[in-house]
Amino acid sequence: MASSSGGWGAPKSHKPNGKPQQLKYSGVLKKKDSEVYVRNVLPEMMEEDILLLLRDFHPQHVKRCHSVLRSYAFVDLGSSEQVQAAIQRFNGHLVNGRRLFLSRTVADNGRKDPAETQSTVEMPALERVPRGELGLSHAKAETQTLQPAPPDAVRQLCYAVPMEMRGSFLALMLKDCFQDLNWLVSIAKLHGEAGLLVTDALPQTPYFWAIHLTEESHSNMHKLFCQLVEEESKQPYLTRQAVQRGTRCMAECILGEDGAAWNRCWVLEKVEDLAVVLFVDFGRSATVPLNSLRKLDEDDFWDIKPLAQPFMFQKGIVSARPMVRQILQGKVVGPSHLEPHILTFTFCTEEKEEAEDPCEL
Predict the structure, then answer these.
(1) What are phi and psi of 187, to 5 degrees?
(2) Which residues pair with 312 in a beta bridge?
(3) Cα distance between residue 144 and residue 330, in whole Å
(4) Residue 262 in contact with residue 232, Cβ under 8 Å?
(5) How far apart are CA 251 and CA 263, in angstroms?
(6) Is 221:229 a contact under the CB 8 Å cutoff?
(7) How are the residues of the chain apportioned to helix, strand and coil, as percentages rounded to the nearest 5?
């Protein structure tokens, strides 16, 4: 939490003699309403990784903390509403196989952390991940499950499939938005050399969303975006009551330096005056004001299936360096072992290196 001097600390008031005095409430230092406490953070996650993870909630400052037993962070999100939305979205969320816990405050003086209490959000269990999907350079036994490592062994990370990429989640979204599930079947047919336009990436994981660049996808993009530009000013804004979980509509999607553009979206959650939406053509979730959503419920706008689809790297993970809007050239080598609609992608240079590696011969 940023103090008036620019550092991190509790808010202070001044006594008549001019000396600062900490404000305490029942033994707990007062926290800003705009600050969220993130517990159980991976030790290797840096401040920039946390900022990128919470990018949809407009993070302003982050204070990264380490101790012998704990790794956590304090993040200023600018408003109480953003804090509530971030908690709703990420409390219990898996990042590199570790579950994050978010809360508004953290207790002091040895008291129990609020985040240590049982989460009320029901989250799916962590899957068993074959070695071939751990991003290891020489993983041969793809069908083996992980065995407990010796105490002195280096701990290896398991990557659970992100919620937005799971077949159960996508089936629900597709049924609501497009009335059929053919997309889940058709996207798994891609194989061989491919050019991918990255639309979103999950930091510190091998997973990302991308548009397979073909003449058909280019035609669909042009048709869809022209439709949305034309309808932008025609479609009315939705009322608060009209926005519910599962509502299909349109909202402005931030495209980095290129500004924002209106795109199709599906409401994941409604939190006070905010809505958590999934931009179905980018695979990207975002938090937007409720009063910024426009109506887009006519079936004609949902004839074109989602433009982007989920991928994962055959080895390695997505770093904190932004890769959105980059074009990747490589090869699709087959489906994931956990979700057949998630295709495994490799760079051609990596494939050549593996073939020449004596360990692989």
Answers:
(1) -70, -20
(2) 207, 344
(3) 27
(4) yes
(5) 6
(6) no
(7) 25, 30, 45
Please say whether the beta carbons of 124 and 163 come within 8 A.
yes
Give the separation between CA 16 and CA 151, rounded to whole angstroms: 57
So what's the pLDDT on residue 52?
Answer: 87
3-state secondary structure 95-153: ECCEECEEECCCCCCCCCCHHHCCCCCCCCCCCCCCHHHCCCCCCCCCCCCCCCCCCCC
Contact criterion met (CB below 8 Å) for 202 and 311:
no
Q: Give per-residue pLDDT as tens, 40-89.
A: 888 788 888 888 889 888 898 898 887 655 678 889 988 888 888 888 88
Locus of tokens 């599962």: 246
pLDDT at 28: 34
| Neighbour count for residue 229 (Cβ, 10 Å) | 11
Q: Which residue has the tokens 């990370």?
A: 157
Looking at residue 167, its amino acid is G
Question: Residues 295-324: pLDDT tens digits?
Answer: 999 999 999 999 999 999 988 777 655 678
Residue with tokens 């219990």: 92
Distance of CA 241 to the CA centre of its chain: 27
What are the residue ranges of helices labelled H in the chain? 47-53, 80-90, 167-178, 182-186, 215-231, 348-356
**Pairing outcome for strands 71-76 and 35-39:** antiparallel
Cα separation, 194 vs 212, whole angstroms: 7
pTM for this model (two decimals)? 0.59
Closest by Cα among 214, 166, 194 to 342: 166
What digits encode the pLDDT tens for the residues 200-254?
A: 888 778 999 999 999 999 999 999 999 998 888 899 999 999 999 999 999 998 8
CB atoms within 10 A of CB 281: 23
- For residue 317, which of 337, 286, 345 has the smallest C-alpha distance? 345
